[in-house]
Amino acid sequence: MATVPAYLSKTEAQAAAPAGQRPAPARGERGSYRLRALPHEDVFFYSKKIDNSRLVREADPRGRSDCWSAIGAAGLALVLLTGVLAPSVANTLEGYKLESLRAEQRQLLNDRQVLQLQEAEMLRPDRLESLAKRQDLVTPATDQVVHLEEKAEGTFAMVK
Question: In Å, how far are 2, 33, 40, 50, 157 from 45, measured between CA atoms?
Answer without folding.
Answer: 12, 29, 11, 15, 126
